[in-house]
Amino acid sequence: GRIMPYFGKQNFDATTNAKIRKYSFTVSTSTQQNFGVSTGSGDEVSVYLNGVLLQDGVDYSVSTTQVSLTSNAVQNDIVDVHVYQSFAVANAVSEATAKATSISSAIALGG
């Protein structure tokens, strides 16, 4: 299937290509709260505990280097973290400019 690209928040890092980074952790100790990830200032993060989507600010917090659960995960829990990196659309043309512009040469479409 086709996946809709994610645009993210403002203050993104336009030097990287858009992508989704996925982290998966199986908790090996009796209790664990912190999981190492890498995020940027404009990235969105989704965190799942055993397949259940957690709520940001209630169930976990995020820094640029880790996700911290507000309650301990226990041994054999699975924590999945999806980091949706922001990206910029380069050379975008405004609607007004596009409507005011005419094409003055032939366009060849390959097939």
Write a short abstract of this structure.
The protein is mainly β and 111 residues long. It contains 1 helix and 7 strands, in the order βββββββα.
Q: Structural class of the secondary structure composition?
A: mainly beta
Radius of gyration: 20 Å
* Overall average residue pLDDT: 80
Q: Give the SSE order as H and E letters.
A: EEEEEEEH
- Assembly type of the shown chains? single chain
**N/C terminus separation:** 22 Å
Amount of beta strand: 35-45%
Can you offer a commentary on this structure?
With 111 residues, the protein is mainly beta. The strands form two sheets. Strands 1-7-3-4 form a four-stranded antiparallel β-sheet, with no helix packed on it. A three-stranded antiparallel β-sheet has the order 2-6-5, with no helix packed on it. A hairpin with a 3-residue loop joins β5 and β6. The two termini are 22 Å apart.
Keywords:
36% strand, 111 residues, 1 helix, three-stranded antiparallel β-sheet, mainly beta, single chain, elongated, 5% helix, 7 strands
Give the SSE layout.
Layout: E1 20-26, E2 31-36, E3 44-49, E4 52-53, E5 60-62, E6 66-74, E7 78-84, H1 95-100
Antiparallel strand pairs: 1-7, 2-6, 3-4, 3-7, 5-6
